[in-house]
Design brief:
The protein is of the alpha+beta class. The chain has one domain: Mannose-Binding Protein A, Chain A. The chain is 27% helix and 24% strand. Strands 1, 2, 3, 4, 5, 6 and 7 form a 7-stranded mixed beta sheet that branches. It is globular, with a radius of gyration of 20 Å. The relative contact order is 0.19.
């Protein structure tokens, strides 16, 4: 009688976990192919608008899967261009969005990622900036609302927001 080799239980569990991950979460390649409807051209630059609310690090990861980065507003006028486009669409008017800017703990400046350039122009939202705790990292978000909108200082780890990816 021939002896059948058994698959180790740990290897079988790892394989099942991989299959569940692929079905529930999906792979970056599958994610890219499903998201083509959210790619838009604004003034000659391609952006990806994600409609889900995510933590800042998930936004960075998901943009990276597309070989893109979370949006920055390093160029003069870009903030108003994106804001106007969002308001014209009427879809995301009352949404908050992550930007790539981070103010590291115990520092006084926000810097765009991944370039490291210092953020020099702010169009602060109503009653912002408001966080005085300098011992934690802060992220710069934006709110496109035409009346109360602008940049907002937020704790990087506490909020779920929409995000926009752009090609670097």
């Amino acid at each position: 009688m021939r002896k059948i080799k058994m698959i180790p239980k740990s290897l079988l569990l790892l394989f099942v976990a991989f299959l569940v991950h692929q079905v529930v979460i999906g792979s970056p390649v599958e994610e890219q192919s499903k998201d083509l409807r959210n790619f838009v051209d604004i003034n000659g630059t391609t952006y990806f608008f994600d409609g889900s609310n995510e933590h800042s690090w998930i936004a960075v990861r998901n943009c990276g899967f597309k070989n893109m980065t979370v949006i920055s507003f390093e160029e003069p006028g870009k903030w108003e261009l994106i804001r106007s486009w969002i308001l014209d669409q009427g879809t995301y008017n009352y949404s908050h969005f992550w930007t790539s800017a981070v103010k590291a703990a115990n520092t006084d400046t926000y810097n765009w990622q991944p370039s490291g350039a210092e953020v020099t122009e702010f169009d602060w939202s109503y009653r912002k900036p408001s966080i005085t705790d300098n011992s934690v990292d802060l992220c710069l978000a934006f709110y496109p609302d035409p009346i109360l909108g602008g940049h907002e200082d937020v704790y990087c780890t506490e909020y779920l927001m929409k995000y926009i990816c752009e090609y670097p």
